[in-house]
Specification:
Layout lengths: L11 E10 L6 H15 L2 H7 L6 E9 L5 E10 L2 H13 L11 H12 L7 E8 L9 H7 L5 E8 L6 H9 L7 E4 L5 H12 L16
Parallel strand pairs: 1-2, 1-4, 4-5, 5-6
Antiparallel strand pairs: 2-3
Length: 222
């Protein structure tokens, strides 16, 4: 759905930051499915169309991997997805990437805090969204609520992609503890084999063009 109001002069409508789980519960094949799935989702025709739907007003993308308290690394630093070539290049970089760690727990609060530092160097955009993917609940360090209290994440919407693979109810945890901000939501993947479909659906929802102007002027006499 597109909401048109007064023209907005901006080159970036959304800074989208994706966080991928590489904790010890994620094996080598599952990690590959995440990276390949994200790359395939970015290049899906419907996602391309959404990303390029407003010429001159694009989406900036960055991706990092996370696991333990101090195990966060950039997979893709901020790029503007302003053309098919830019989308292809970002997808290729993600698909070719390799995980940095494999033996650390799930420090979700620390992962969110790291996201705040990545947003600090993000392009200036109308909206900011952090999107966290994972297959488990926080089991190391402080929880998400303390990250939101102690890190500069004002105005950032946080969505989740819960990967159901074990007995833990990751979807419920993400709904109750992770997501934040107006319109925040959780997408669910039924295992890592379903990651591409879920990511494609989530990206499509997140990158829908929103053009917000002075709505308070609507209906006022000229």
């Amino acid at each position: 759905m597109m909401l048109w109001a007064a023209p907005v002069a901006a080159q970036c409508r959304l800074a989208l930051l994706l966080a991928m789980d590489i904790s010890s519960s994620v094996d080598e094949e599952e990690d590959r499915l995440q990276r390949q799935g994200l790359a395939a989702a970015l290049t899906a025709p419907e996602v391309r169309q959404a990303l390029l739907s407003v010429p001159g007003d694009y989406v900036a993308l960055a991706v990092y991997e996370w696991s333990g308290r101090y195990q966060q690394d950039m997979v893709l630093d901020w790029v503007m997805l302003d053309s098919n070539a830019a989308i292809d290049a970002a997808a290729a970089r993600i698909a070719a990437s390799k995980r940095s760690y494999a033996e650390f727990p799930t420090a979700l609060g620390y992962a969110i805090g790291y996201g705040a530092s990545v947003f600090a160097r993000a392009p200036r955009c109308l909206f900011r969204t952090l999107d966290v993917s994972g297959d488990g609940v926080n089991n190391d360090g402080f929880p998400p609520r303390l990250a939101y209290t102690n890190f500069p994440l004002g105005g950032v919407t946080v969505n989740g992609l819960a990967i159901n693979v074990a007995n833990e109810d990751v979807e419920l945890y993400y709904l109750n503890e992770l997501i934040r901000g107006p319109g925040a939501f959780v997408e669910v993947a039924e295992g890592f084999g379903d990651f591409e479909r879920a990511m494609r659906r989530k990206l499509l929802r997140e990158t829908q063009a929103r053009v917000i102007g002075r709505l308070e002027d609507a209906g006022r006499p000229g």
